[in-house]
Amino acid sequence: MTITQEAEFCIDLHCHSTASDGALSPQELIARAGDKGVTHLALTDHDTISGLGDAQTAAQALGISLIAGTELSCLWKSHTIHVVGLDFDTSEPELNAALARQNDNRWRRARTIAEKLAKLKIEDLVEKATAKAGGDVPGRPHFARVLVEEGVVKDAAQAFKRYLGAGKAGDVKGFWPSLEEVVCWITGAGGIAVLAHPRKYKLTATKLRALTGDFRQAGGRAIEVSTSGQSSGDLGFLAELCRRENLLASQGSDFHFPGAPWCELGSIMKMPDGLEPVWHHFRNPVGVTAAV
Ligand code: AMP
Ligand code: ZN
Ligand code: FE
Ligand code: FE
Predict the structure, then answer these.
(1) 256: CA distance to ligand 2 center in Å?
(2) How confident is the model at residue 6 (pLDDT cuts 50, 70, 90)?
(3) Where is the Polymerase/histidinol phosphatase N-terminal domain (predicted)?
(4) Boundaries of every domain in the chain
(5) Helix, strand, coil proportions of the chain in percent (round to 5)?
(6) How far from 243 is each of 194, 205, 274, CA to CA, in Å?
(7) What is the pLDDT averaged over residues 59-75?
(8) Which pTM value belongs to this model?
(9) How large is the average pLDDT for residues 88-93?
(10) Where does residue 97 fall: left (phi above 0), alpha (psi -120 to 50 degrees), or beta otherwise?
């Protein structure tokens, strides 16, 4: 594992806090990023920007550059896809209205997940998952934690494999907007839309190329070339896809919680050479003189 791209920076553009399904509060996350030597961090909570204020205060105190971020759930040809938005105007009204709708969608989805899992005979499943989310809307990882606690499964991985993962009862997709819509929300707020962890969707190479093409057509500008848990083969494939589609390259750990050595803030495989980093195109570009 190599930490970052450009010697004087450590850039991580994808991670989660308790504002969505991460284990650390925004303040704790920033403190950990500081410990790991991260110089530029985008907090990208699922369908919310509610952690950014606290993160910004903590980042400023530590001299870390915080980039506005979020990770939006959407649908492309019946596949759930994640689009990371970076460096947008957090006060833009249409984006904020869209995020409020996503929050409603997530509540409706949470109730549907609970209905679908009713056969497990867990009482008050939504309430228990909501408690795990600190009173905010629960995501699938919060449901997974309840299933573990209730002894239905041995760990979160088994919860996803049996009940919450792709194609299982708790994989409820109907509530997400289209890929085109979420890209528009980000670009409309002056941000950069990034196709998150493209290898996670388990698409064939042909389908992934089609997705990338549609994403670009919709106004998407970057793909996450380097993320945690990828092989060097994946990295090479995504670098090639990035070049072919003439997209910018992003990198992010997708950190959720401490204790997973394969997924740590700032610890990302070095991107292959010859790609144009997305951070060169931020409103305050990072490392432009160093890289050109
Ligand atoms: P949600 O946005 O509520 O659908 O939850 C998505 C999150 O669930 C992802 O960002 C991951 O953190 C987690 N997740 C998805 N699939 C798995 C899996 N197979 N095992 C563990 N966690 C997963
Ligand atoms: Zn997550
Ligand atoms: Fe994701
Ligand atoms: Fe993520």
Answers:
(1) 6
(2) low
(3) 11-76
(4) 11-100+177-281, 118-164
(5) 40, 15, 40
(6) 15, 15, 8
(7) 97
(8) 0.95
(9) 98
(10) alpha
CA distance 256 to 22: 4
- Beta strands at 65-76 and 79-86: parallel, antiparallel or unpaired: antiparallel
Residue 261 scores a pLDDT above 90: no
Average pLDDT of the chain? 94
pLDDT over 90 (residue 292): no
DSSP state of 83: E
Mean pLDDT within 183-205: 97
Distance 112 CA to ligand 1 centre (A): 17
Which atom of ligand 1 is found nearest the CA of 156? 21
The stretch 102-106 carries a mean pLDDT of 96
- Report CA-CA distances (Å) from 22 to 109, 113, 129, 176, 282: 19, 20, 14, 21, 25
Nearest to 157 by CA among 141, 174, 179: 141
**CB-based burial of residue 284 (10 Å sphere; 0-12 exposed, 13-18 middle, 19+ buried)?**
exposed
Nearest by Cα to 117 from 171, 156, 74: 171
Which CATH superfamily groups domain 11-100+177-281?
Metal-dependent hydrolases (3.20.20.140)
48 Cα–ligand 4 center, Å: 12
Which residues are within 8 A (CB) of 67 and not within 5 positions of it... i.e. 6 or more apart?
13, 40, 41, 42, 86, 87, 282
Residue-wise DSSP of 117-158: TGGG--TTHHHHHHHHTTTS---HHHHHHHHHHTTSSSSHHH
Residue of 73, 105, 140 to test ligand 1 pocket, by largest number of atoms within 8 Å of CB: 140
